[in-house]
TrEMBL record:
UniProt-listed InterPro entries: FHA_dom, SMAD_FHA_dom_sf, TIFA
GO terms for cellular component: cytoplasm
Compositional bias ranges of the Polar residues kind: 169-180
Protein name: TRAF-interacting protein with FHA domain-containing protein A
SUPFAM superfamilies, per database record: SMAD/FHA domain (SSF49879)
Region entry Disordered, spans: 169-189
Location(s), subcellular: Cytoplasm
Similarity comment text for this entry: Belongs to the TIFA family.
Pfam families associated with the record: FHA
Tagged with keyword Endoplasmic reticulum: no
BP term (GO), one: positive regulation of canonical NF-kappaB signal transduction
Domain spans labelled FHA: 49-121
Keywords: Cytoplasm, Immunity, Innate immunity
């Protein structure tokens, strides 16, 4: 046997990709303490904390409007499965945190969907989980976005159409014939 054949099987590592955006990031440089260059390992039994207190949080946001500890991410394995997940907990007493459309108050927590948008104040963070098998640690890979992650989707102005009843006949069509609407049994169609 060669050393290649005797080598341990390589594990894939769960990686949490986080893409940060703030409208004033160029002026205030609140992300200057974050490492956007490479992946970082976090032990599975540690909690990844985000906030402005560098003594407590590994991921520092340099902004006085951010709480000392804004939120935490805990890596865990679901009961009776081999699936690994992240739990997000809001640790700010003053600022609500939203995960997609779910609002979290102080000490509220929820599972992090495999792809979601985390918002608090003017901060937007796109979180994407890349699944892995390692039980000892996970990795974080931070990215910076120049454009807003969550954008108001402005659709072109479309004419407002009236709802179509169950019988499929538009009321505007019936009224344009000069007739008043009548009730029809669905078996007559």
């Amino acid at each position: 046997m060669t050393s290649f054949e005797e080598a341990e099987t390589e594990e894939t590592v769960t990686c949490l990709h986080l893409t940060f955006y703030h409208p004033c990031q160029d002026e205030k440089m609140m992300f200057r303490c974050l490492n956007f260059c490479k992946r970082e390992q976090v032990r599975a039994d540690e909690t990844a904390k985000f906030g402005r207190d560098s003594n407590i949080c590994h991921y520092n946001l340099l902004d006085t409007r951010v709480s000392r500890i804004q939120f935490s991410l805990q890596f865990y394995r679901k009961l009776h499965t081999s699936e690994y997940c992240f739990e997000i907990k809001n640790l700010s007493k003053k600022t609500k945190l939203t995960v997609n459309q779910t609002e979290l108050g102080y000490l509220n927590k929820t599972d992090l969907p495999w792809k979601c948008i985390i918002c608090f104040g003017d901060y937007q963070i796109l979180a994407e989980i890349q699944e892995g098998e390692s039980v000892d640690y996970f990795e974080t890979h931070l990215h910076l976005s120049e454009a807003p992650i969550l954008q108001e989707r402005s659709l072109p102005c479309l004419p407002s159409l009236p709802p179509i009843p169950e019988n499929g006949i538009s009321p505007s069509f019936s009224l344009s014939q000069g007739k008043s609407p009548t009730e029809i049994d669905e078996n007559e169609l």
